[in-house]
Design goal:
Strand content: 35-45%
Number of helices: 5
CATH superfamily of the largest domain: Pleckstrin-homology domain (PH domain)/Phosphotyrosine-binding domain (PTB)
Number of domains: 2
Shape: elongated
CATH architecture of the largest domain: Roll
Order of helices and strands: HEEEEEHEEHHEHEEEEEEE
Structural class: alpha+beta
CATH class of the largest domain: Mainly Beta
Radius of gyration: 19 Å
Number of strands: 15
CATH topology of the largest domain: PH-domain like
Helix content: 10-25%
Largest sheet: 8 strands, mixed
Length: 239
Amino acid sequence: MKYTALLVSLVLFSALLPASVPNPAATYVSGSAAIPNGTDGSINVEDVKEFRFNYEGGTFKLPYDRITSMEITDKAGVKAHLSVLVSWVPKVGKKPTQLLSIRFKGENGAGEAAIFEVSRPEFQPVEPILASRTGKQVHYVDVDQPDNAAAKADQPAPPVSPLVPVTITSVPVGAMVSFWGQAAGRTPVTTRLMPGTYTVKVDADGLPTWRQDIVVEPGKPLTVSADLNQRAGATVAVR
């Protein structure tokens, strides 16, 4: 009964949200989103249908109904962080930070994840909004508690990350790379993607857009070279 009351309260809270919603600063740490690791930006939950991470060069958009769970933790590596291996070092000079891990379903239904470094005080006002938008609570995992020592010792070795490193280079260098219309950075750029087929678009001022379909295979890092001075074909070889 108390959970029903809580859910009703969250829905009412969502309906009464002020026009100005806080946009806490965040850093994309790792995951399956086409965003370079270490990218600074801000979390935006003003839209009622999708979570957004705004950063210089683009916006990562994720419909709330595709989010399956959310977790805050002090350390990387807990439960393999949604099957994503992360080597996380908080940025010097920033407020005390934690990791926000968002698990979601990809466009093909496969499980994916996005991990952000956030400031707890800045994230707190956004947490109830995320809960009301998604209908799910943010779970907190404090791995530094002594009571967790035995549990951590019993945890199995984390699985190998299913994400595959993908490097895009170009002639000329400095061209903008995007997947699914979302900017991934300027060449040369490396991102990590789930296995599957992707359309890569590379743009540079004054040159025709270069577009290719690539196939990402499990456990096989690949490099794609885009020559914007030549017309691209239908598919590129992975190497």
